[in-house]
């Protein structure tokens, strides 16, 4: 476990990303810095590795020898001063937005399409069950694609596989817009998911390349803020697109988004994995790496705990439209409002996690608290839906769902951060395993919420309780946080 809450880029000579090669000025270390580059503590998101530049550099246009000053809020910590610090912050914000866009693209691809399902059924003269397979195909592609792209990024670096995935995503999405049959649409939705997985897995790997410890957990919370907005606005965007065109227009919009992200990645997201840290083996080496990761009990514990927490979320997403509208009689507008409020709760708690809790408390303590709240909320929902407290109305059930969803903001970023902190030299493969396990566990749990029909919310609550308790068990039995507490420092 790392013993510092700073970014990895601060402890290695990693250049900041400028606008092109040959435009960066040298950044010199200050007295007593022990050879560490004087990069602001909070601006490591602006960093990227340029193999051709062995020494640290500053963004294009900065003075060759910037004046050093203490980083804001960190007395004695060296940092860039004046225009240098402002430029680094701007670049860091840009990289944050790029990574957020990459992680938001898959939810956009899934959720923008939801309002169009009835129209697709009519347009292609296919049964509803067949058109539902277009969603299943995209989800399966996102799960399996991560297993392919993750090892590729460990071998060839982050940029090339990401750019390849984005180009394939654009082409597959454009063909979806032109698909004349349901079968062809299913096939290219699968390809769209496979290619879109590159954004998910490589965004996490880039975060691991640049950050350690507290800073990594904070960055994941920031990504949650950006990517968490996508499921809220995606159906709204899809509905507005359908007002001016047919369902094919949704894929035209997604094609445009894919093109824009591809251009932004090509111009501003530089390579973050140095050649010295890349794996040179083939498929067999990738499989050995993944087997080694799975043999790490602690990594596997965080991976499964995170996947089970994600299954609780999937159970909510799958069942809540029927629970809120069919069982409790809410209107679609009320459901949309409650769904939005729950998403805001998740995002807000994620920001509290990153801005206030991380760094003051150990990640394991915050994670354990989040999992405990999820268990309590799920048990409360089970008691309400089974009638233990009498006939519960919509308000208490909605309150329980809000608490459960909000606690995800403590569980999800911290399971990712703790797992990836153990995978310094295989971040791509580790990110692939984290993403694939979450999608697969969620996909298995999701259909179970409707096993007793649409007239009861008990299956949803049962699935949530079982998955939440299992997540706590994995965290305690496999991760064993108390064994590492004495060895951790700096709030980790």
Write the layout of secondary structure elements.
Blueprint: E1 25-26, E2 57-58, E3 68-70, E4 78-80, H1 83-111, H2 117-124, H3 128-156, H4 159-178, H5 182-210, H6 213-244, H7 248-268, H8 283-295, H9 297-327, H10 332-357, H11 363-385, H12 394-420, H13 427-445, H14 458-479, H15 481-484
Helix pairs in contact: 1-5, 1-6, 1-7, 2-3, 3-4, 3-5, 3-13, 4-5, 4-7, 5-13, 6-10, 6-12, 9-10, 9-12, 9-13, 9-14, 10-12, 11-12, 11-14
Question: What labels would you give this structure?
Answer:
single chain; 4 strands; two-stranded antiparallel sheet; mainly alpha
Q: How would you describe this structure to a colleague?
A:
The strands form two sheets. The protein has a two-stranded antiparallel sheet. It has a two-stranded antiparallel sheet with strand order 3-4. The longest helix has 32 residues, at 213-244. Strand 3 and strand 4 form a beta hairpin. The chain has helices spanning 83-111, 117-124, 128-156, 159-178, 182-210, 213-244, 248-268, 283-295, 297-327, 332-357, 363-385, 394-420, 427-445, 458-479, 481-484, and strands spanning 25-26, 57-58, 68-70, 78-80. The protein is mostly helical.
